Amino acid sequence: LRDRFQEVPPDKLEQELWDYLDMGLPESEFSDTKHSDFKDTSQPATISSALRYQLMEEAEPGQLLLNPWLADRNKTPAFTASERKSAVRFDFPKTRITTSEWRLPEGVTIEELPGAVNITNELGSFSRSCRDKDGDVVCERKFVLSKMDLQNLAEYAEAKAFFEQVAKHDQEVIVLNLE
What pLDDT, on a 0 to 100 scale, did the predictor assign at position 22? Predict the structure, then answer.
């Protein structure tokens, strides 16, 4: 995150942040966007913004389905081939931690939150959870990629299964009720 915004000129930073947050959501609107100093490496890189968009997920009457994982969500598995003929090398180890807080408007209540997930293997780890915080929702997601090379078919199969699990869990949604 920091690398993406560190060198953006100040007059273009707001548009870059909106493009990052937009994620292709239809008719999305942002306001009150705030961020840390991306050049200050002694502090975590943070972005906060009020987001309003039209939900496209199918729901029962009186319900909203919200995917809280935003830009982090994996819509499709990273590995599509059933077998790999050569080694896979990732560019670098990676840790990505995302916390999102959803302030619900009056008349919207929580019906169901996605269950907590914690997966750890030789490739890395993935965890995520959502909790009710005084009627609002706080979701945390952590993805760690610690292994750099996949040398054989067994390692590839394990990595493929890991990324498929992450993609599956990233599709789980918050169910909200409209009163």
Answer: 63
